[in-house]
Amino acid sequence: MVLHPExxxxxxxxxxxxxxxxxxGEDLKDALLRAQDVIGAMLEDKSDYPKPSELEDITVKDNxxxxxxxxxMEEYRKNNxxxxxxxxxxxxxxxxLGKKQKLxxxxxxxxxxxxxxxx
Length: 119
Hints:
By secondary structure, the chain is α+β, with helices and mostly antiparallel strands. It is built from four helices and four strands, in the order βββαβααα. It has helices spanning 28-43, 73-79, 92-100, 105-117, and strands at residues 2-5, 10-14, 21-25, 65-66.
């Protein structure tokens, strides 16, 4: 990954993903966090990851900074879950009562599944 200092913050080049992916950050810490986020987003549906370039093989200009960014894809997926629409069947009376109380059925089902699966 290459950090390019700008007048304000950094632009971030990630050459190994999708023939070059870019993001930006307001400061060095923000740039690194955003790099992790864009890497996670680009790879979340993949199981075959691109091979990272060797740092010595990346060419940079004067003030550019070569660095490595670490991302745990399992942790990323856990903290950034993709939602899936599911049809469920529940007793009509529970639906009527739930709507009267303005319950969020998706949130309740998600919580119940997490409890049942102990995650």
